[in-house]
Structure prediction request, 1521 residues.
Amino acid sequence: MSTIVVRVKQKQIAQLIDKGKRLDGRGLNDYREIKIEQGIIEKAEGSARVLLGKTEVMAGVKIETGEPFPDTPNEGVLTVNAELVPLASPTFEPGPPDENSIELARVVDRGIRESKAIDTEKLCIEPGKKVFVVFVDVYVLNHDGNLIDASALAALAALLNTKMTNYEIEDGEVKFKPGYTELPVRKHPIAVTFAKINDKLVVDPWLDEEQIMDARITITVDDDGNICAVQKGGSGYFTPKQIFDAAQIAREKADELRKKLGW
Amino acid sequence: MSTIVVRVKQKQIAQLIDKGKRLDGRGLNDYREIKIEQGIIEKAEGSARVLLGKTEVMAGVKIETGEPFPDTPNEGVLTVNAELVPLASPTFEPGPPDENSIELARVVDRGIRESKAIDTEKLCIEPGKKVFVVFVDVYVLNHDGNLIDASALAALAALLNTKMTNYEIEDGEVKFKPGYTELPVRKHPIAVTFAKINDKLVVDPWLDEEQIMDARITITVDDDGNICAVQKGGSGYFTPKQIFDAAQIAREKADELRKKLGW
Amino acid sequence: MSTIVVRVKQKQIAQLIDKGKRLDGRGLNDYREIKIEQGIIEKAEGSARVLLGKTEVMAGVKIETGEPFPDTPNEGVLTVNAELVPLASPTFEPGPPDENSIELARVVDRGIRESKAIDTEKLCIEPGKKVFVVFVDVYVLNHDGNLIDASALAALAALLNTKMTNYEIEDGEVKFKPGYTELPVRKHPIAVTFAKINDKLVVDPWLDEEQIMDARITITVDDDGNICAVQKGGSGYFTPKQIFDAAQIAREKADELRKKLGW
Amino acid sequence: MSQKTEKLIDKKGLRLDGRKPDELRPIKIEVGILSNADGSAYIEQGKNKILAAVYGPKELHPKHMALPDRMVLRCRYHMAPFSVQERKSPAPSRREIELSKVIREAIEPAIFVEYYPRTAIDVFVEVLQADGSTRCASITAASLALADAGIPMRDLVVACSAGKVDDTIVLDLMDTEDKVGSADVPVAFMPNLGVVTLLQMDGILTQEEFENAINLAIEGCKKIYTLQKEALRAKYISVKEVEE
Amino acid sequence: MSQKTEKLIDKKGLRLDGRKPDELRPIKIEVGILSNADGSAYIEQGKNKILAAVYGPKELHPKHMALPDRMVLRCRYHMAPFSVQERKSPAPSRREIELSKVIREAIEPAIFVEYYPRTAIDVFVEVLQADGSTRCASITAASLALADAGIPMRDLVVACSAGKVDDTIVLDLMDTEDKVGSADVPVAFMPNLGVVTLLQMDGILTQEEFENAINLAIEGCKKIYTLQKEALRAKYISVKEVEE
Amino acid sequence: MSQKTEKLIDKKGLRLDGRKPDELRPIKIEVGILSNADGSAYIEQGKNKILAAVYGPKELHPKHMALPDRMVLRCRYHMAPFSVQERKSPAPSRREIELSKVIREAIEPAIFVEYYPRTAIDVFVEVLQADGSTRCASITAASLALADAGIPMRDLVVACSAGKVDDTIVLDLMDTEDKVGSADVPVAFMPNLGVVTLLQMDGILTQEEFENAINLAIEGCKKIYTLQKEALRAKYISVKEVEE
Prediction:
């Protein structure tokens, strides 16, 4: 699109939001359509593909054995990585992770970690020596806005889909046995992101909205309605009241999504 | 040389090849003069310097102990690396290996590996735990075309020159003893590269030919006349017949070279 | 400052040196004021901050356990690293160490290592297997010239301030006990740097002098008046006599500094 | 290629996954499935799941890399960390760098690079799941993504592997055949011109086996070519339906 | 955040370092302490020792990164290898890269970026010793360094953390509280405008606790703001004294 | 430098390789042996085998790195992986980066850098086999490569080490002497001007020993200078012979 067309569209988006409406017809607190497909990568222990409108994110889970962290010798390790692969957007470049993909990975990680979604103590093989390491790789395939919520959904959906091969310890070595056990996932943290446009907050911004937003805020909520992670982004600001209201709405939206998805 | 002189020369090269001749007087299937010197780097377990016309390549072999790959616990490990060192050409830049040096290393590696030139089972020290790792470092010192064939010759000549220190196992540790054993090399894979210019194939292109070629193809042949590695390069194409003919010629040239070099 | 002002100032500096004087009033062989503060980073095993005029350098010492080098199985390991952090100068860029920071670290390292300042044999825990590794991190905070001398002072002051937690060996594992022992530092190598300007040598150049110097030379001297490390830098040269004279002066200045600092 | 004792072809002459020697794996192709890319395609071939996207023609940075008489084609072949049995580090491996080069050189002969001087085209291939012969499926998808982006081409490029397992020349190697078989011959082909744009081989083959393998791979390419064209047509038809 | 049995608040309601729940650690601020930087500030907050320096506005290389209508703000948050218990590699960690981003986004709302089109400002933060809530102290120092550099700003940005330890909402977490406590809420604030420019959270909080934590952090910010202005004034006075 | 009990000088006053204290190792120099480089030289000194090549003067990218009043001299000292006992990773080590700098600064005083403003010259040194004092042999070769490339120079630069082994000051340290001896003093020298362009030292020396070592190294330099000039003349003669 030409720059002029873009500007006109952006003006339209902002004006509509002022009136409590959105260009794609959604209400300010509505999510786009969400489609989740699980188990699509047979070679991964767990996987999922999430469509949030036209935003498409995949997540794959691989499980390996490794050493625990010294301060948590009885717990498995969670590692979240995110790749903004260049086929997803003209603005993504090949190369090592930049600040955007690192922030994305760390926000998704924090939601899972702080809500204690995975029972990491069940991932301990030999205290202080050997534990399971759960790699969650978030793979953004098409960027149409709100990568955080889509990635958090994909990561959780992949974890819920994860099967671990049964094993027994023989002479200190892990021997795999037939059969699978599900990964012990006990919480369902949902990230809810708001964009601030013309001093109003809208849920689940799409790309055009993100391009004109002043700032965004992500509030991740666990099954009990507790807040377990927050991240403000962008070079704008929020009033305390906007934040408190956002938290309230996030808790409602998270509950709604969890019900809709059967989690 | 000025751009115009270069263009005139390139035109000449192409016109001559059309008539079955080459600017340096060779026939289409002739190699340039080959000189091989072995054992020039006393600090390496094996070494060789190859001159292919003005193209100059060195290879050094170092042997260390390391772990075998999980799927071949009884076999030593071969690692081929190639450096296009910047003194060899104005087009080579210092820095980590680029796609050209990686392709070069991998094509040389494939010829040695697929022909099973090295009896890697004899490089096993303790199955699954400790094996010898053979590092072949290809070092291009002057680039005047056909780096693949020169590098494959240098790597093989260095391997044939390689002496391993005798050892015995004492308490699970490798103890070196006086005396040497030759590296068990049982095959002599020869890479034969063709450039396609004006729809004709020429063997062993020099740099000026490479600059006007449409594509190249390398066919590596073992002592029994079998094809053990192939690599097409460049942004042109070949007809199936050209490929089959090239394979036939490669098998003849490889045989010829092996006899000439006494391998 | 504008380029013209800079040029005028540089001319003045050079003319004064010609007459045996310096713009800041020092004699040719005078150091700027030196301030040393030790123990400023409680979380480090040792630390110091050095002000040499306006040049400010910090050094921190961390001690970890690791493996000895194969050729010195009974000795601990010394590792010196230097960071030219970008807040210290408009010419320092973020990123991996460049040739200047590597040279700085290696010159400081050489002075400590060659003078055998640290009794590394006392850092051996289990010969050939486990030793203490002493990390000295030199951190340049403000660059106003003569980083080498300031860094060498900071590194030594930090080492002299270093306390190692007591330990005992239990089942081959290091167990830390209450109490501290001082790091065994037995020599006090002092680096003395000269800049050559208008064919005259001046001690402890500040930044404006460095910008017009032809070359610099650093001579590190141990407690016995022996020379233990030398480094010429910059794209100029020295006559042998200039070098010999510099060595003589360096030995005097080192002695003087050691007395002043009570080392 | 390391030979093991495992049987890759049973008494009936069928392969591990029940295929006949000259039989392709099930293939599913979709064109134009990514909204941001200028062109895109998705292929499933056996358990391979591969996405290709094209961005361009576009300006080149830094500018001194641009060519005055032609476009620059760039290509990145990349595997998702979860695409293989052991998690793959996302940093490009030496294998991925080599494959990016040969895939680019397999596609380039089809493109009228002289139509867009001073520009660049990026081809991005992401292997979401790998099951043998991924470079071939990647080329098949990448050339569709180029066509979807409206890049003028001499022909589609289509690719397929052949190889040797248990003394038999077979078509379209899957993962185990690739790893345990005795030779792997990936071939890219431009059917209209009848020419080969990618050829690699590893393993051991006689001259005759080599020729047979290439000929078989070309037959495979021709079959996949039909599917490519169908997928393009399907996209075109569905777009027209939307427009009407 | 991992919960352990250690007591973080004693029977008298005091914290490990003897503070009351709503009490700040001792803070020392100095402005303009580096001679080369265009602006600089140093902060000690508890055992945190942090330097911030500003270079700019200046030309941007490569030039195509410059923006025609505003300056580019760049920020690097970096920890000295000796700043923490275990030596930290000097290469930037993922944590440092994320913090560099959120600190930049916390400062940027205060700057009139449109006053200096086509230029760049670099903010460098070096943590010499880390003792919890370093990102907050970094923001407090960085905004002073910007002011010291004479960059036109809407307001100073000031930051402070709150959190939850042993069921109590407390102000200005120190290291152990950060690691062992149940929630950490760093907040950056512009007092004149009454707005939040950085907000993160990890741990578990109810809506009410979350609101209380933010409100408490803002109270902390307001107190530190007074110290910021004093430090600026002290610099200004001492400069004037020198000049007279 | 670590002292061990091994005897480095025998009862007759001869060194491990049979040399007298003030004796150079056998030296072989060839000039102009690489066809692509603008200038090149090869040196064998003991078991050292070192190639140097020069490219330039040439344009500099990116252009803002060019200097308006002089050329930029760049230098890379690099060791082949097989040049030392334990395989060396091809990535530049900290030692190689330091040596690249001091070698460049040893050569630069000889070059009329102001003759070619806005250009760059690249000096590439490859150590094919290392046997002690490689930086000195590298400088000797590099300055010949510069002369071979026709770069206008004040003088050739020639380098040689001296050192202390078993209480004796000796010339031209070989590998073991370098590693086990008590001091190593590499010196680069411009004979016509009588000045030192590289000087480093590690080990322990008294003032007198230090002066003696430098003087001895300079004597060594003067001998190698003769060989340098012969090698240049040999190249010039053989070129003339070819031309005639």
Notes: The domain at 27-238 of chain E is CATH 3.30.230.70 (Ribosomal Protein S5; domain 2). The mean pLDDT of chain E is 94. Chain E has one domain: 27-238.
